[in-house]
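Hi everyone,

Forwarding the result from last night's run.
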Amino acid sequence: MNSKKFSKFELQLQGKKVLYLQSGKGPVILFLHGLGIGTTIWDYVYKHMHNQFTIILLDLPGYGLNNDLHVAPDFEVLTKFINDFIKKKGSVDYLVGYSLSGTFSHRIAQNHPSSLKKIILVSTPIFYSHSIVLLNWIFQAIGFHPLITKIVKFFISQFPIKHLIFFLGGLSSIKNPKSMNDCMNKFGEKSDLSYIFTSASTIFSPTQFASISVPIEFIYGKQDDFATSLMAKKMQRYCKKSVLHIVKDAYHLMPLEKPQELARLIEISCSFNKKNI
């Protein structure tokens, strides 16, 4: 895949132009990113993938190619945005949701479009306690005004605050700071930071569970203290068919920390499913 270039495409959703990148041939994998970093989070991953899939990279509203596209910063609305994209595209076989987008993908799995053969959740957090809404309010406050957002972004990027945040959150290893620094450098790049903080606040609420019939693969870092394997096991209880992969020595920033291993697991998951359809 690293030998191929991505082309830019667009489609209309509810009268709004949505841009996305696409490359390759074969079954279609739609990649969705996490909080703060758009589709560039996958740069290291797809370079390790072979040329047997079509890869689509979609920036959510407020991010990257779609930084001027805003929908209501609501969990259900953002989930519907992704769902509508899949239905309009009409040929998405596999959905990969990382972290923030994993929570949307988990909801989609509960009533998935017919084209989806499998959903892959990477480092996806779920929450049980109603006290998590405190983070919801904090993120809304950060996104309230562009100036507040800029101040917060500057503040959290400083040493040693940056190290403290990553250490306490189990997001990455400060002993190997490359992925941590990559994350901070890419955070908010070419995106509407105020909007993405406001929209990200919607995930900080107790997770709604329901029966899931579409096959699910969970990929989690063993050292991840933000999205833990225990969370994945909780979601597995509602899945008719699922597999959990634990990646050794990986924290939350798996696309930056372990891109080759993550690419391998995604490819195996999709290739295995392709052979058994």
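Strands lie at 7-13, 16-24, 28-32, 54-58, 94-98, 118-122, 216-221, 242-247.

Cheers,
N.
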